[in-house]
Write a structure and sequence with these properties.
511 residues, 3 domains, TGS domain-containing protein, TGS, Hypothetical protein af1432, Ubiquitin-like (UB roll), 5-stranded mixed sheet, Beta-grasp_dom_sf, HD_domain, 3-stranded antiparallel sheet
């Protein structure tokens, strides 16, 4: 059986206080679960250790890891809340109880269990670490899902695919997202999984051959420029991600250029752009396929340079260029470490408003062990992303059917990245209008919108925004929301603000 040392070895120089807390949680959980076994027949405690190891890999602190070890003690082995609080403190108890509440939600499909989803988002809004523990717990459960009875297996896989994998993606935890998606997809739709595997088997073989040839040429080209301090490897597109992209590309695999990619990891941002210049100097880039996510990061925090080039022998290759810091962020998201904080705050981009709200919770809660016992105001400190709070609050004002539509539009569907004239990113659902854009920035801006310019041209307010659009909002004090707007706005926030303004106007007229 795994030892506590395996968890500690994954942490970054834990102090004696951190080691003591995790060791005590490890021993307590081992004793509490000693008669508890999984479907596979292995001791249940193995699952708790694996959950804690995942949290340690994500860079979480001792309180979160301890809660990961203890997260099933209340629900499964009748340990009391008082026992946990007395031994490990109120903050660990808060997290354990939060995960316990999520474990009591029984999912039967996104369409049928709106109330369970609302409770999930409320729990997330109270403390985002609850979700991160739950994601670690779910990841290990998915790795051993074949031992679960078939009927239950399908439910867990569907819930993972429809809820937890999208949540991990929105938090930038791409490594978790890929594994959650692919395992869940293989259980939800095994026939389609096998079909895609067959489809890409030969294609990937060709792509790897092309990548290897290009890789050798690239290394020679970089060495000629004196660039040798790099790390490079290959990335193959995950099965579920490919499945979704094939749906958007009319099932034509020839239209997909990123089945595989060469990743180049370098020391600095300057090196990223220097290498991009070397590549474009030697190989012709494919038009429209140059993506600068360093200057304009994705709203979930992803940064890097992407380009697709013609190799000269009839093939095309995608290259992704990142620093080491960017690579770790791309794999583990904002749960991994704090180095993104200064960057996001310095750039001050609109799209990172939820990220800036989330980061303080990591700073305060995963602090040095010397201050572990000083945490008192846990829920106030653990700020969740704004979109999480909106999903939790929106349900109180609408019927279940509209809430489901709100979830689909604002959370589960594809997004478009638009820009203010200053270059700030505004993340919106597909088919959003300038009105959605205005409300995403500020309620007053939406309430007084009189017109909009997209890419320098005046457009109708029901125009559907596209990726990369630069949007300028015109306002007048006399402008007011119109009921007709409700027919074409996409975001729940816009609909909520429009209804609120219309109701206020009706009350003032009847007074």
């Amino acid at each position: 059986m795994a030892s506590v040392r395996e968890i500690l070895d994954l942490m970054d120089s834990p102090s004696s206080e951190a080691i003591d807390l995790i060791t005590r949680a490890y021993n307590f959980a081992a004793e509490a679960h000693q008669e508890h076994f999984r479907y596979s027949g292995e001791p249940y405690f193995v699952h708790l250790v694996e959950t804690a190891k995942i949290l340690a890999e994500l860079g979480k602190g001792p309180i979160t890891i301890a809660a990961g070890l203890l997260h099933d003690t209340i629900e499964d082995v009748c340990v009391t809340s008082k026992q946990i609080e007395e031994r490990f403190g109120s903050e660990v108890l808060f997290l354990v109880e939060g995960v316990t509440k999520l474990g009591q939600l029984r999912y039967r499909g996104v369409e049928r269990h709106i109330d369970s989803l609302r409770k999930l988002f409320i729990a997330m809004a109270e403390d985002i670490r609850v979700l991160i523990i739950k994601l670690a717990d779910r990841l290990h459960n998915m790795r051993t899902l074949e031992h679960v009875p078939e009927a239950k297996r399908y439910r867990i896989a569907l819930e993972t695919l429809e809820i937890y994998a999208p949540l991990a993606y929105r938090l930038g935890m791409r490594k978790l997202t890929r594994e959650l998606e692919d395992i869940a997809f293989s259980h939800v739709n095994p026939e389609k999984t096998d079909e895609i595997k067959r489809l890409v088997k030969q294609k990937n073989k060709e792509n790897i051959t092309n990548l290897q040839k290009f890789h050798k040429s690239l290394l020679k080209g970089l060495a000629a420029e004196g660039i040798t301090n790099i790390h490079s490897d290959y990335r193959l597109k995950s099965l579920y991600s490919l499945f979704k992209k094939l749906e958007r590309k009319e099932n034509d695999i020839e239209k997909i250029y990123d089945l595989s990619a060469l990743r180049v990891i370098v020391p600095s941002v300057a090196d990223c752009y220097r290498i991009l210049g070397v590549i474009h100097g030697a190989w012709r880039p494919l038009p429209g396929r140059i993506k600068d996510y360093i200057a304009f990061p994705k709203p979930n925090g992803y940064r890097g340079l992407h380009t697709t080039v013609f190799t000269g022998d009839g093939a095309v290759v995608e290259v992704q260029i990142r620093t080491k810091e960017m690579h770790r962020e791309a794999e583990y998201g904002i749960a991994s470490h704090l180095s993104y904080k200064q960057y996001a705050l310095k750039r001050g981009q609109q799209s990172f408003s939820w990220l800036r709200m989330l980061l303080p919770s990591i700073v305060r809660f995963d602090r040095t062990p010397e201050t572990l016992q000083k945490a008192e105001n846990k829920t106030a400190d653990a700020q969740a992303p704004r979109w999480v709070k909106e999903l939790a609050e929106y349900h109180d004002q609408v019927e279940n059917e509209e809430y489901m539509q709100h979830l689909k539009n604002d959370f589960f569907e594809l997004r478009v990245f638009t820009f203010t004239p200053k270059g700030d990113v505004v993340d919106l659902p597909v088919e959003s209008s300038p009105i959605d854009f205005a409300y995403a920035i500020h309620t007053d801006l939406g309430n007084h919108i009189s017109g909009a310019c997209v890419n320098g041209k005046f457009v109708a307010l029901d125009t559907k925004l596209q990726n990369g659009d630069i949007v300028k909002i015109e306002t007048k004090k006399s402008s007011r929301p119109n009921r007709k707007w409700l027919a074409f706005v996409k975001t729940g926030l816009a609909k909520k603000c429009i209804r609120s303004a219309l109701d206020a106007e009706a009350r003032s007229q009847s007074a």
